Structure formats: structure tokens, C-alpha cells
Amino acid sequence: MPTCAQSALDWLQAHATRATLEGMARYGIPADHALGVTMADMKRLGKQLGRDHALAAALWATGVYEARMVAAFADDPAQVTAAQMLAMALKGIGKRNAVLRKAAQQTARRLSASPDASSKWIGKDAVKELV
């Protein structure tokens, strides 16, 4: 069982197939940040990892689609903040296609100029990833 983000990524790569990667396009999942792992395998890995907020954050930070899905399964809901969820959603939406990316970039810039500290953090974090 993987115990760190790198070993979880290694596990995902070992379970990836070209056919699964090619099939992800019909769900609108860009292949440039995906490996080609089935949802069943991602759920299985998430269950094996158990709840681990730090590991989930490290998996999310990789930017790999499957690692982010596993992060959602492995994260501890009690430790996830509203700001973290909003930042993840904004960055995820911005990676769907060019139109959504532009809208997400505009939203991120607006948030980063906000006087609210949480909104500012969300915006600045999203701007870094969406540029």
C-alpha cells in the first residue's frame, strides 16, 4: 500500500492504460494531465490509503487528474476548509477548456484583489496554477 504521494503516483502509473486514457476524452478530461486509470482503481487506492489530509494535499499538488481524484477520496473531511474547496473547484474548472479557463482566470484575479484574506488567498493560489 502506498504511504506517500510519490508511491501513490507510482501505483497510479502502474495501473494506467492507453485505452483508459483515450476513453477519458468523452468525459471531457484532458489527456495532458491524466494517466489513464479507471475510476474503480482510483477508488480502490483511495480506500487503501484511508483518511490522510497531508497526503491528499500532496496528491492534489501534483496536478495529475487521477492523483487529484484519489486526493478527494483520501482527504479527511473534518480538515478540509471552505477556502480549500473553493480553490480546488476554481482551479479544476479552469482546466476544463479554454473558455472556462479564461473565466476562471478572471475570477481568480478578482478574488486576489479582494480585501478578504481568504478570498485573496484563493485567488492568488488559482492565478499561479491557471497562468
Structural account:
With 131 residues, the protein is mostly helical. It has helices at 5-14, 18-23, 39-49, 53-61, 65-74, 82-94, 98-112, 117-130. The protein folds into two domains: 5-78, no CATH class; 81-130, no CATH class. 67% of the residues lie in helices and 0% in strands. It is flat and about 45 Å long. The model has no long low-confidence stretch (mean pLDDT 89).
Number of helices: 8
Largest sheet: none
Structural class estimated from helices and strands? mainly alpha
Provide the gyration radius in Å.
15 Å
Count of domain modules:
2
Strand tally is: 0
Average residue-wise pLDDT = 89
Helix proportion: 55-70%
Cα-to-Cα separation, first versus last residue:
35 Å
Q: In a few lines, what is going on in this structure?
A:
This protein is an all-alpha fold. The chain has helices spanning 5-14, 18-23, 39-49, 53-61, 65-74, 82-94, 98-112, 117-130.
Q: Which key features would you list for this structure?
A:
131 residues, mainly alpha, 67% helix
Indicate the topology:
Layout: H1 5-14, H2 18-23, H3 39-49, H4 53-61, H5 65-74, H6 82-94, H7 98-112, H8 117-130
Helix pairs in contact: 1-4, 3-5, 4-5, 6-7, 6-8, 7-8
